[in-house]
Amino acid sequence: MDNSPPHTKSRQHVTPRLWILLTVLSSLCLTAHAQRPPRAGGRESKSEAAARAEAEAGRLRAAWGKDSLRLAADRFMEARAAWGAAGQTARAIDALGAAAEAHFALGEYRQALRQLTAAAAESARLGDRRRENEALSSAGRALSYLGDNDRAQKYLAAALEYYERQGYAGAAPDDRRRLAAALNNMGEVYYSKGTPLKALGYLRRSLALWVEAGDSKGEAAARLDLGYALSSLGDQDGAAEQFADSLSLARAAGDRTVEALSLSAAGTVRSLKGQEQQALDLHLEALDVARAAGDSQSEAVALNGIGQAYEGIGKRLISLDHYEQALGLFLANESLDFAAGTECRIARIHRLTGEDRQALAHYGRCVELSRRANKKRTEAYALTDIAGVYRARGGRGAALGQYKRVLEIYRQIGDRRGQAIVLNSIAELDFESGDKPGALTFYRRALPLARASGDRESEGATLYGAALAARDSGDLEGALDYAGQAVQLIETLRTYVAGPDHRSSYFASVHRYYGLYIDLLMRLDRLRPGGQYAAAALLASERARARSLLEVFAENGADIRRGVAPALLERERALQQRLQEKARLQVLLSGDTEAEAEAAGAARELRELTAEYQLVESQIREQSPRYASLTQPKPVTLEEIQGELRGENTALLEYSLGEEKSYLWVVSADSLAGYELPGRAVLESSAREVYRLLTSRQSADGKIDAAYQAGVAAADTAYEEKALELSRMLLAPAVPQLSDRRLLIVAEGGLQYIPFDALPLPDSPPGGGRPPLVSQHEVVSLPSMSALIILRRARPREEPAPELAAVLADPVYETSDPRVPQVGQALLARNPQSAPEAGAPALRALREFGPRGAASGIPRLRHTAAEAEAIMSLVPSGSGMMATGFEASRETAISPRLGRYQIVHFAAHGVVNSEHPELSGLVLSLVNREGGRADGFLQLHDIYNLDLPAEVVVLSACDTGLGEDVAGEGLVGLTRAFMYAGSKSVVASLWKVDDAATAELMRHFYESMLKDGLPPAAALRSAKEAMRRQKRWRQPYYWAGFFVQGEYRQRIQTGRGHPAAYLVIPLAVFLGCIGLTILLRRRKGLTTGGGGAQTTRPPGP
Q1: Which of 13, 44, 414, 736 is deepest in the core (most CB within 10 A)?
Q2: CB 802, CB 768: distance < 8 Å
Q3: What is the mean pLDDT of the chain?
Q4: Is residue 736 left, alpha or beta, with left meaning phi > 0 and alpha meaning psi from -120 to 50?
Q5: Mind giving me the DSSP string for 466-518?
Q6: In this predicted model, what pLDDT tens digit does every residue of 979-1026 receive, in sequence order?
């Protein structure tokens, strides 16, 4: 009798081949049935609805975008409801857990926690311990992100106890994955609590299980967390390896969250190594990935990283913007431990900018959040900085006690970087109290910890402090060794930063390292004269100056855009356009008190755009095949410097300002001498006073009354004594080397604002009538001697430009200008709403021009038309271009045609914004011929992008020689911008110059340069001497404001067949006419109209 089940018996009568065929057909039928939509008039079963919703949710989750993840979470919840209605509780719990996973990926941790807690409760009611503990493990991770690490630890401990008891370590792959996830989550909790050593044990076990299970997604997350722990313990190389592996695995697995976090983590390691440019690139890539995935948590982490990179190169405002954006996201996610860390970063920026009240408020919030999250490391960072605020306020005892408590916290959690920072702070306390040997002891303890942590910034600060302490303890050789190591470190780190703006910001933040190194060399020179210490100090001073300018000179002639991706070049062009628009809006809003919020937003956008533009420029340089050889121009030698001076009767005077002592080096073709001067504060205070007296003729309110006249007279009298005092401080030591030589002045700090040639001769006898330096010396300003040498190498003497001079003068600023056609004015009168805001942006930017507080708009520079005519009268026929009125426009200025002229002359208003140099520029015509608005701002970035290989650019405008004083770079403004653009030299001004005096000075200057054939520097000296001989213009205010920077020996070639001597008679006739014209205009009190023109002088007969 056959007892087999019926289905077995029937199968015995089927051949194997037929059985396979029937099985396949059956499978196909079942598949078709599952995929077939409900029959017409029929209803989908609850299980079918649940499966369909779950399948759709899975597809949406796989897309991993913000919208798709949110929709996935909704579909999983639909599936949960349907499974529950179908009585399949376990499947409903799984759907609920999947919905929580989607919310977690979106950074919505509170919602994820609610769902996971519900899943654990439902599993417990069902008696399903596996699902209950899986939900508890994930809930623990969510709690950790929400800052509740104690509760998270309890959840995870319960889950791990269950998994260990069930023997999951040796169980099936899915169970090993559950154990691996719980171990990884516990590792995250310990890391968040500031105990990375404990975290390492859990994370390494987790990683091994993920690898055994062949789960690349889990392995990616474990390697990411393992890298975090290694980094916090100072193993930056080990961390970088883990982050690289994590990134590769996450990309392969399609895990956008871990991909973004791995990129940011790698960027943070770069920052710790001082490689801020590479860090910035990685964080920006992470930001793109996070935003595309809709992961607000990873987005905030990337924003934090961007802020850290900008902080590392000294761009604090941009850094603060990014930190505040990150904080908003962290708080929205209720991610308390991350918010705590960001509060600490924001507080630090406020502290560094001297805003202690705001700093303490943010530190307080950081400590509160850290304690709620049980995050010891972040709490320790905040307490360290709070101690620093106490110290700054004079509370040494409170600060020391705080430092000792924090040091113990860092020791407990094994944070070597934190220990180094606190030991440095204790050393600084000892140093300030006078215990220099004690300070040196703490610095020596901190140094190996800083190096072991891999934090190069901390290492540099420790070396600098050790050098100071050793110097003041009497060990100059030891101090020099420490300072030399610090300088070498910052030189190495500087090469990691791409782009001149970023490198100059970074270098400014550590420029004091060079100052100390120079001071030590000069102190040793005093002890051991003739030991080459003075020469080494001079060369160190050269290496510390105008570094970005040197690199630009080295780039000149090398097309660094060749070989760069077209998309990057297009992005550069688009950003240039957006920058221009935002800069104009910023200036427009700056004077509107009712638009303060909008102005703040515009300022923030402008900073962000500027930062993005600088990053693109950096990327262009990095992609350029030739760029690597240009980032580090070879330092010049003393022999090279002296070689440039040979046969020229020229001396170099280079100044370095220090806090305690300043130094002067005087170099000739065959000698070098170094001198000690007073400290920075003394010299700069004297310089500021002399500058104030020199510019006393600038009326504060536009009134020329008796009080004004008395003030000017008193200033003139005081100037004689104050200027002589400054001259003796700066020049008296060098008198034996000066003779009648040309003087090349390399100044620093506040000395850059002083016209040296207006200072009295330092050996002048007592009494009035002391002759100024210009009476015996030609004076040239240089950013550094190295800059001149590299300029000459990069732009050797060659055939001059084919045409002689281009002049842009007398722009049209207001619609009320008589040169605006009457038709246009009539249209404006009928329809005032359509009136162009021709002067609005510039009016606010130029509100200091003309009478202070006057509402008369941008004043016309009436004498510049005569100035332009005087220049053109000296230019051979067919060799010049004059653009006045409407033609003195931005379009003319950026035209490639200007590159064909040896001389380019701008007679227009200048705007100098020292706080935001990107808003500096020249203001050209703001009105077109029809009376409509014209874009007349020639901004700094416009000038940087000009191709202008002129022999000399003359900026006959106000304040054009000023700019932002960047430590290690000098004044960064219009003068520097035109040198970037290719000009060999620039003539600019140090203050608001009277336009009638300027016209007169320029007449003499061009006569000397074009008629007498003098080089620009010698021609300017001749012009100043001519002005001094005229009673009306005798005071330095009228002639001393202009200076030459750059090449000084190149003569202007007036062209073949047009010798300068032939111009004498036409010049004399024309100058007489100009003088008569100016006299008549002054008497009538008006200037004739005329629309302006762009003219090229016709060829002669």
Answers
A1: 414
A2: no
A3: 81
A4: alpha
A5: HHHHHHHTT-HHHHHHHHHHHHHHHHHHHTTS-SHHHHHHHHHHTHHHHHHHH
A6: 878 889 999 988 887 878 988 999 999 999 999 999 999 999 999 999
For the CA atoms of the chain, what is the radius of gyration?
36
Task: For 398-439, give the DSSP string.
Answer: HHHHHHHHHHHHHHHHT-HHHHHHHHHHHHHHHHHTT-HHHH
Question: Nearest CA to 742 among 1051, 1049, 961?
Answer: 1049
pLDDT tens by residue, 962-985: 544 444 444 457 887 888 788 899
Cβ atoms of residues 973 and 964 within 8 Å: yes
Reading the block at residue 1080, the tokens are: 């008549």
In sign, the C-alpha dihedral spanning 855, 856, 857, 862 is negative
Cα distances (Å, whole numbers) of residue 600 to 534, 583, 586, 595? 49, 13, 9, 9
8 A C-beta contact, residue 923 and residue 817: no
Regarding pTM above 0.90, the answer is no
C-alpha distances in Å from residue 445, one per residue of 234, 455, 945: 16, 15, 49
Tokens of 881: 């271009």
Q: Give the helix ranges, DSSP H, for 820-920.
A: 822-830, 840-845, 864-872, 890-893
Q: Which of 762, 545, 743 is nearest to 656 (CA)?
A: 545
> How far is residue 920's CA from residue 910's CA, in Å, rounded to a whole number?
8
Among 88, 149, 80, CA closest to 116 = 80
Let me know: does 96 contact 82? Beta carbons within 8 Å: no
Residue 163's contacts (CB-CB under 8 Å, 6 or more residues apart) are 133, 169, 175, 178, 179, 182
Residue 333 tokens, joined: 């996610």
Instruction: Name residue, tokens 């920075």.
Output: 680
What is the rounded CA–CA span in Å between residue 981 and residue 912?
A: 18
pLDDT of residue 346 exceeding 90, the answer is yes
Tokens 């603060």 — which residue? 320
Q: What is the mean pLDDT of residues 935-941?
A: 85
683: left (phi over 0), alpha (psi -120 to 50) or beta: alpha
Residues contacting 855, CB < 8 A, separation 6+: none
* Cα dihedral across residues 1090, 1096, 1100, 1101: positive or negative: negative
How many C-alpha atoms does 40 have within 13 Å on its Cβ side?
A: 0
| Cβ atoms within 10 Å, residue 313 | 28
**Can you give the pLDDT at residue 1092?**
52
Q: What's the CA gap between 260 and 802, in Å, rounded?
A: 55
> DSSP secondary-structure letter at 772?
B
**Residue 829, pLDDT score:** 53
Q: Which amino acid is at 39?
A: R
* Residue 1000 one-letter amino acid: E
Pick from 469, 504, 473, 494: which is nearest to 483 by CA?
469
Least confident interval from 311-325, 750-764, 1049-1063: 1049-1063
How far apart CA 584 and CA 911 sit, in angstroms, is: 12
Residue 924: predicted pLDDT: 93
Structural domains for the chain: 638-789 (3.30.420), 800-991+1056-1096 (no CATH)
- The gap from C-alpha 185 to its chain's centroid, in whole angstroms, comes to 38
Q: What is the pLDDT at residue 842? A: 43
Phi-psi category of 749—alpha, beta or left, where left has phi over 0 and alpha has psi -120 to 50? left
Written as six digits, the tokens of 372 are 């709620």
Of 570, 997, 986, the closest CA to residue 788 belongs to 986
- How many other C-beta atoms lie within 10 A of the C-beta of residue 715? 18
DSSP assigned state of 1010? I
- Give the whole-angstrom CA distance, residue 78 versus residue 52: 10
Q: What angle do CA 719, 724, 730 make, to 5 degrees?
A: 125
Cα first-last separation, the chain: 133
Model confidence at 854, in pLDDT bands (50, 70, 90)?
very low
